[in-house]
Amino acid sequence: MKKLTAILTILSIMFITACSYKLDESSIPSESQDAIDYMQLLIDDDIEKFRSNFNSELFSIVTEEDLHRVTAFIPGGEVLSTKVISWNIRTVNSVWHGNFVLEYQFTSGWAVAQVSLGRIGDNTVLNAFSFTPTKASQEELNSFLAVTPTLDRILIVVLTFASLIFMVITCYSVYKTPMPVKKWKWYLLSFLGFGAVTMNWTTGVINFQLLTVQLVGFGAGTGTQYAPWMFKFTVPVSAMIFWMRRKKYIEQAKAYTTKQSTEEQSAD
User: Fold this and answer.
1) Where are the transmembrane segments (predicted)?
2) How many domains does the chain have?
């Protein structure tokens, strides 16, 4: 019983903590300021200085005329706020790369900038960038209630929670079922699934992974308040196998009990 309780407690904590997470602004890397400063040059229409921060490849491809066309998509008015809503920093073969997503609120609208930075010596350079106007803030656009539920979205949500409930019920049934084998293996196998289905709640895009094995392969949550809700479930094949074998296990346990009782009576 203690093993079962421990497993269910761990799973509950994992599921609850994965549901939602507010971005901790103190964790934003200092390198993001370079991305903010560079994009501010574009917003200020300081094209020449903005372009001077390009790496050599980007400098040879993107002209000042191209940048003037980009500035036409920038919402008008004053910048009311600038937020770093996502980042990914990595070092590969001693080469530093940083990708940042910035959200801007202007007096006349919203926009999202994606900025890719690199380093050449002590200098930080722009490897790539994009600037996209949006209808509202990412927090609002990716809010769970901002999306009109469709049949396929509802189906994935139902299957996500159904797979979780089925696995938990199976795990509890393993505890209650007399079995001739050690139960701890089935406690774990109750949560083992094959394949994975993941859905982005905001966009409705559904991805399938067929050749994968998932332990505790279910979840519902969002990385931060700016990210879309994601739903994921796996096909609980191992749990299904248990239910197919359950009757046999009960019969074997009864036969073993009867055999022991008979042997004890014979000994008497």
Assistant:
1) 154-175, 187-206, 226-244
2) 2
